[in-house]
Amino acid sequence: MDINSHLKEFGLKSTEIKIYLYLLENGVSSPAQIAKGTGVLRTNAYHVLRELLEAGLIEEQAGRGDRKTYIASDPSALLRALESRRETIARILPDLRSLYTTEKNKPRIKFYSGLKQIQEIYLSALDAKELFTLGSPETLYALMPEFMESWTAEMRRREIIEYDITSHASQKSVQKMSREIGPHYLAASLPPTQGPDLTTDLLLWDNNLALITLAEPFFGTVITDPHTARTFRMVLKILHSKLH
Fold first, then answer.
1. Rounded distance between C-alpha atoms, residue 50 and residue 56, angstroms
2. Is CB count within 10 Å lower at the N or C end of the chain?
3. What is the Cα–Cα distance from 151 to 124, expressed in whole angstroms?
């Protein structure tokens, strides 16, 4: 690996490398000489010189009159600059780790609008080994019959276990889902209630909890958080076992 490649690994840009190496080889030089010798535009050369000065790789000297000249620092300045960076990172590392832990444990929330996007939620759940649901299969089949047929077929093919807590009004659709998904579909019905059927659906898989509105405006929210998922999984398991 040549010098240029090593200096790039250090973090220098190509124009910074050109000017730095030029000053190492030629000693004290004015901006005009540097621009001519490196092919870097003079206006850009001033900016690069400032960057190298801040990095401690070159030094500024007074020339004739008000003119400034520049010279490369001893190459050991590269090591000093690297050490300085390491010390800076070491000082802020505890704060960075704190931010990383906070962000890692922070729940992620994603919103979906419209039936097409809501279908993406159901498709995402197909990556799970087991799925907890609470809602109305009757409403789902009424809204998107073709999608439900392909979705239940995929559930069967992947042998995903579904623990479904269904509305009492969904008995016919439950029978249909049981035929299409097979023995991995475990349904438990809520007691009969007065009023319209459920127009919301709840899905829980892995660390994801989805809350879906199956009426205008169609809307879905997916919360990804292990703590939330663990709590809802416990509640849904208990409810399913009581109703089954």
1. 10
2. N
3. 11
Mind listing the pLDDT tens digit for each residue in 122-159? 999 999 999 999 999 999 999 999 999 999 999 999 99
Whole-model pTM: value is 0.60
Name beta bridge partners: 111.
Answer: 221
In three-state form (DSSP H/G/I as H, E/B as E, the rest C), the secondary structure along the chain is CCHHHHHHHHCCCHHHHHHHHHHHHHCCECHHHHHHHHCCCHHHHHHHHHHHHHCCCEEEEECCCCCEEEEECCCCHHHHHHHHHHHHHHHHHHHHHHHHHHHHHCCEEEEEEHHHHHHHHHHHHHHCCEEEEEECHHHHHHHCHHHHHHHHHHHHHHCCEEEEEECHHHHHHHHHHHHHHCCCEEEEECCCCCCCCCCEEEEEECCEEEEEECCCCCEEEEEECHHHHHHHHHHHHHHHHHHC
Which of 109, 121, 108 lies closest to 212 in space, CA to CA?
Answer: 121
Residues 19-56: tens digit of each pLDDT: 989 998 998 888 889 999 999 988 898 899 999 998 88
Place of tokens 């419209």: 114
All domains in the chain, ordered by first residue = 3-75 (1.10.10.10), 107-243 (3.30.870.10)
